[in-house]
């Protein structure tokens, strides 16, 4: 699990820093003379314009302005904290529907007119170190796995653009979640556990529990095994789900899942075999300097490992991302990086036959890759940075199924076929994407970004984006 840490300064000072990758705001840092506490405050104003034009659909113009505030620091060396908030105003030529603040409609927003809306997001986390454990809490994004393009386990804030997003005026962004947890670090072994609340339907409960055991092996090899347990209250109208065990009205928080070191698969059986349990593995190999080989494998409710390639049973659900990357390659004045990643997600992955209270989703966005079930992508990217300029070139091949079992909201019923078909002929969308982005940072307090993608295949058209930010 990725834990975000803060960097602090040894004296009271005003310092300025900006990340070319995260566009983190510059900040003012205040610290007491003893160095026991410090607070960094930053702000950023960002304005962006996106233009999308696809065959058989109108050209869309989306302008977004956001004001962002950042706060991080520590009270004593053991207590760390951070927070950030985005306040956004969007102008668009789309028709913006009303929002009822039901999580099924995505992240909430306030409709100001037919073509204008305002919305906001915040995230915060804190940690307190108690040897050998660290206590964790926050309202933030949870990310698990080494994949750079498509996390299939927990994607956190990962949100690659997909052309089908352009058909909706819903906010296509992942949302943070409230959580508490703890991290144990003993030599080369790390154990992290989280309990988080998800939002599927207003006023109804939904929870996910995550734990991961990681081992740092010699030669810079890291191996992890993790489980997730997901459950909640029934969200569908009574009688609409024909599965005999679909009703879980009034389901509350299961405290047994918050107990450390106990496999969820055992707990779930003792509690009635009623929850959505998944098992995952992740591997990162950095044996050779500047090279990284990585992979993630998610098993979602499979009968056994030997059934992984058995398409005769729809419940043999799995997903994987495998990649290789080369970082920090110096050629003359330029610093290059390169990666290639393959992702495959079988039909029915992230879904559950009990419906929305058990799907692998939060605010109608998947917790795993936003490719969704029954999909495949091959992605490659080349980056180069010279002084104040960073250039990225990328390409991808994407296939996405459209038949039953390809949408995270699909519900398998007793009358549904018991087999599955990965990317079935005649029911699969295909596209290629070729594009690039340019980031220019002439000064610490200003950054500019341009991006363009050209799409071929079933999504024919382009997506262009320009953004500028001022931070301090």
Q: What's the main sheet like?
A: 18 strands, antiparallel, barrel
Strand content bin: over 45%
Q: Could you name the ranges where pLDDT drops below 50 across 5 or more consecutive residues?
A: 1-25
Radius of gyration: 23 Å
Number of strands: 25
Cα(first) to Cα(last) distance is: 30 Å
Average residue-wise pLDDT: 91
The percentage helix is: under 10%
Number of domains as seen in the coordinates:
1
What global shape is seen?
globular
Look at the helices and sheets and give the structural class.
mainly beta
- Which CATH architecture is right? Beta Barrel
How many distinct helices? 1
The run of helices and strands is EEEEEEEEEEEEEEHEEEEEEEEEEE
CATH topology: Porin
CATH class type: Mainly Beta
CATH superfamily descriptor: Capsule assembly protein Wzi
Characteristics:
single chain, 472 residues, mainly beta, Porin, 18-stranded antiparallel beta barrel, two-stranded antiparallel sheet, 25 strands, 52% strand, disordered N terminus
Could you explain how this protein is built, in words?
This protein has a single domain (42-471), classed as Capsule assembly protein Wzi (Porin), CATH 2.40.160.130. Helices cover 1% and strands 52% of the residues. The protein contains one helix and 25 strands. The protein has one helix at residues 264-270; strands spanning 13-15, 27-31, 37-54, 60-75, 79-92, 110-113, 116-130, 133-140, 143-144, 154-155, 177-186, 189-197, 206-217, 221-232, 276-285, 291-300, 317-331, 334-345, 361-362, 365-366, 375-386, 389-401, 428-443, 446-457, 461-471. Residues 1-25 have low confidence and may be disordered.
């Amino acid at each position: 699990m990725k834990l975000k840490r803060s960097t602090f300064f040894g004296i009271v000072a005003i310092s300025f820093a900006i990340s070319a990758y995260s566009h983190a705001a510059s900040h003012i840092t205040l610290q007491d003379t003893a160095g026991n506490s410090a607070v960094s405050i930053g702000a950023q104003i960002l304005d962006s314009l996106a233009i999308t034009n696809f065959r058989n659909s109108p050209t869309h113009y989306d302008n977004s302005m956001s004001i962002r505030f950042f706060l991080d620091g520590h009270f004593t060396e053991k207590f760390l904290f951070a927070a950030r908030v985005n306040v956004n105003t969007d102008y668009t030529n789309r028709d913006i529907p009303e929002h009822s603040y039901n999580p099924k409609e995505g992240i909430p927003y306030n409709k100001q007119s037919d073509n204008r809306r305002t919305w906001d997001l915040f995230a915060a986390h804190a940690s307190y170190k108690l040897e050998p454990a660290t206590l964790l809490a926050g309202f933030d994004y949870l990310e698990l796995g080494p994949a750079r393009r498509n996390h299939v386990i927990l994607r956190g804030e990962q949100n690659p653009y997909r052309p089908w997003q352009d058909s909706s005026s819903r906010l296509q962004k992942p949302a943070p979640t409230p959580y508490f947890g703890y991290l144990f670090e003993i030599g080369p072994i790390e154990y992290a556990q989280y309990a988080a609340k998800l939002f599927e339907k207003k006023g109804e409960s939904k929870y996910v529990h995550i734990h991961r055991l990681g081992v740092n092996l010699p030669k810079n090899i890291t191996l992890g095994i993790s489980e997730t347990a997901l459950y909640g209250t029934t969200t569908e109208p009574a009688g609409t789900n024909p599965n005999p065990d679909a009703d879980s009205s009034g389901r509350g928080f299961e405290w047994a899942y918050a107990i450390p070191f106990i496999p969820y698969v055992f707990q779930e059986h003792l509690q009635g075999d009623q929850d959505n349990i998944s098992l995952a593995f992740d591997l990162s190999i950095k044996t050779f300097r500047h090279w990284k080989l990585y992979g993630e494998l998610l098993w979602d409710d499979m009968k056994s490992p030997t059934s992984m390639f058995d398409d005769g049973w729809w419940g043999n659900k799995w997903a994987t991302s495998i990649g290789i990357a080369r970082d920090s390659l110096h050629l003359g004045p330029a610093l290059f990086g390169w990666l290639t990643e393959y992702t495959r997600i079988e039909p029915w992955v992230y879904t559950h036959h009990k419906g929305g209270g058990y799907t692998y989703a939060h605010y109608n966005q998947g917790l795993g890759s936003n490719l969704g079930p029954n999909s495949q992508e091959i992605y490659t990217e080349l980056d180069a940075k010279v002084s104040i300029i960073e250039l990225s070139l990328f390409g991808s091949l994407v296939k996405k199924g459209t038949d039953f079992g390809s949408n995270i909201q699909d519900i398998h019923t007793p009358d549904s076929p018991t087999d599955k078909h990965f990317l079935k002929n005649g029911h699969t969308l295909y596209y290629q994407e070729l594009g690039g982005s340019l980031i220019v940072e002439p000064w610490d307090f200003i950054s500019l970004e341009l991006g363009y993608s050209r799409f071929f295949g079933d999504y024919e058209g382009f997506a262009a984006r320009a953004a500028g930010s001022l931070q301090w």
